[in-house]
Amino acid sequence: MKRLKQNLLVALISLLLNGIWEYAVCTYFYDNDIVSNMEILMIQATFGDVVITLFFFNLLMFFKNGEKWVFKTYDYFNLSIYGIAAAFYFESKALNIDRWAYLETMPLVGETSIGLLPALQLAVLVPLSIFLTRSYYQKR
Predict the structure, then answer these.
(1) Which of 15, 48, 77, 123 supports an S-S bond with 83, CB 3.0-4.6 Å?
(2) b/e for 111-127, b at 16 or more Cβ within 10 A?
């Protein structure tokens, strides 16, 4: 039951942070004219971000053998790296099937076709969601 509550709090925090990010970024950096159902895609992307966050949270807890929130700085760094990898995978897949498109204002990661903002989103919000959840539980 305790792990379920932790997962629910991670999901809620992740939903709030990613929802705000998606709506802020999509307006200015995604081509809403090409994609007719952008509103639905933003909702789906937000829920996908929550699932990614929950996956990495549970993976980390598994490798920590259920230790009670014993996270080190490198754990958050690793979560950032995993977030970037997930962003590259999902963004490249979505761009290849024309699920969405970037505007020219979207900064790209180096010479790739992947937007910098989606990579930063998961690099920052995955560990931040888990850090905020951890902070909540440590204060209790």
Answers:
(1) 123
(2) eeebbebbbbbbbbbbb
Reference 83, options 113, 105, 42, 50; nearest CA is 50
Domains in the chain: boundaries: 2-139
The torsion defined by the Cα of 43, 46, 52 and 57, in degrees rounded to 10, comes to: -130
Q: Is the dihedral of CA 82, 87, 88, 92 positive or negative?
A: positive
Find where tokens 């919000």 sit. Answer: 125
Average pLDDT over residues 106-120: 94
1 pLDDT higher than 70: no
